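Supplementary Text 2. Reproducibility record for the structural model of the 148-residue chain.

All settings were left at their defaults, and a single model was retained for analysis rather than an ensemble. We include the record here because the model underlies the residue-level annotations in Supplementary Table 4.
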Amino acid sequence: MRPQIASAQAQIQVNPAVSAQIELVVPFTTPDLTRAALTTAEQFSIGLNAAVRLIKVLVVPFPNELEYPAIAIPFLREQLGSFECTLPVKPELHLAREEQTAILRLMHADSVVLIASKKRPWQTREERLAAALRKAGTRVVVTYPESK
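Retained model, structure tokens:
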């Protein structure tokens, strides 16, 4: 199952004289879509010095305290650690009030975001996230994995 790359807006230019590491950011969406985004990250990084930041933003609604989310933190950490990838992966768990704002604050200027989404006639949650990140100036690649 090889994902199809639908957006080529993130153009990665590599200067062989510079051995800087390319940071690929994969926001956790669903287990299947996150796995597809990690597969795309592996394909993108062939021959490059790349690492992946797997970011899960747990949105805590306003009446609740940020320190006391409704979902168990150990469960989420275990879920983030369960993904296999040939690249070095740094799983990160962040509690926030709003997902897009939190991801933007966590980004570095030269990061490339990889998001997998399902093909739908309407704009999916993942596509809305990608559009918001693009609007903020982030390089985003959306991939559409083939259906099973």
